[in-house]
Structures are given as C-alpha cells and as structure tokens.
Design goal:
The structure is a single chain. By secondary structure, the protein is α+β, with helices and mostly antiparallel strands. The protein is built from 5 helices and 5 strands. The protein has a 5-stranded antiparallel beta sheet with strand order 1-2-5-4-3.
Length: 199
C-alpha cells in the first residue's frame, strides 16, 4: 500500500500451505545462567520471521490459450512480487529532483506498507527480508512458465512501530486474535494429562 496511490496492489498466488515456516524469537531479559536476582522480563513482542515458498505455474493458462500467459509466461506475477522490494519510481524521481535542486540531505525512501494475508486470522504488517527466485521451465521466448519464489518476511510489531502508525494497530489486532484463539484451547490440567494437585 503506497501512500501516493490510494488503490492497494494485491498479489495473489497459489501455494502449498505446508510450505509456510515461522520462527519466533522471544525478546526478554533476566533469568541468565547463574543470575538468580532478576526475574525473566519481556522487552517487547517476539521477533517473528515468516518464510513462504510460492509456486507460480502458468501451464494451465497456456493450455487454455490465455493471451497474457502466451506472450509473457509468468513474468507479470514475478514482477508484481519483485516490486515489493523496490522503491517506487515516483519516489526515485522526486529524490533526484531534490538533489538536482540543491537539497543537501535527502531522507531514505519510504517503503510502502506491506501486509501478509494468510487467511482471515493472519493479517500481518511485514518487512521483506529476502526474495529468492528459481525459474525452472521456459517457453520458446525464454519467458518462465514455472517458478518457485521464496520470500522471508519479518513481522512488524508494536515494538517496531510508532503508536500513530497504522501497522501498529494492525499488529495489535493480530495479537487480540491470538488471545481469542488461545481462549478456545483446552486449559484444564487434566486435558493435558497433568495432575492438578501436583501443580
């Protein structure tokens, strides 16, 4: 979502849900080995990294005679994903105009807001950390017709964002959703095979 463009750019894709990997690194202090004086304390939300492998295959569209797939293969889908890690050309041109106009200090280009949507329970603001493409099959024009894209993203949390930032509230909504889901998990000690008297 680019501030200069009110219409969000949506990139939808087919994927194997089993390919999504998440890591959470707790952000905490205290409880170090040999230090009994300080309790474990959270310093913020965990650092969560999501890695997803996307498969782009236009062979069905080619069999159906789709004109875009016939002319370009999977290039449009790959381009839409790749642009997630580029500054917009409008920003680049504005920066160049400022430099040519004598502005001594130009701030870094602002990345557009990027949301990773994996169903209605996981809508997360993210920063793209890496983007890897493996193009595996090509047509006679050397357009890729089958490709695998691996995208690694870092989830932006309220620990990373200012309270006036829209992504701040998007992550808060996500954590509220986690609370609601966790409330539906079995909580009775006997449900997990524990003896309540021993706890």
């Amino acid at each position: 979502m680019d501030a200069a463009n009110p219409t969000p750019s949506v990139v939808s894709f087919y994927y194997n849900p089993a390919s999504l990997r998440r890591t959470l690194q707790p952000q905490q202090v205290g409880g170090e080995e040999g230090d009994r004086s300080e309790a474990v304390r959270f310093t913020g939300a965990p650092v969560q990294t999501i890695t997803v492998e996307i498969e782009i295959d236009v062979t069905d569209q080619l069999q159906d005679g789709d004109p875009a797939a016939t002319k370009l293969g999977a290039l449009p889908q790959l381009a839409a994903l790749e642009l997630l890690v580029y500054p917009s050309l409008n920003q680049v041109n504005q920066t160049q105009a400022q430099l040519a106009g004598g502005v001594m200090e130009v701030s870094p280009l602002t990345a557009p807001r990027t949301l990773f949507v994996w169903g209605d329970k996981r809508v997360l603001p993210v920063r793209i950390n890496s983007y890897e493409i493996s193009e595996e099959l090509f047509d006679t024009r050397l357009n890729p017709i089958y490709a695998k894209v691996t995208i690694a993203m870092r989830v932006l949390t309220y620990s990373d964002l200012d309270g006036g930032n829209r992504e701040y509230f998007e992550f808060m909504t996500y954590q509220q959703g986690l609370n609601a889901l966790a409330a539906q998990a079995p909580t009775a000690p006997r449900a997990i095979g524990a003896d309540p008297a021993a706890m």
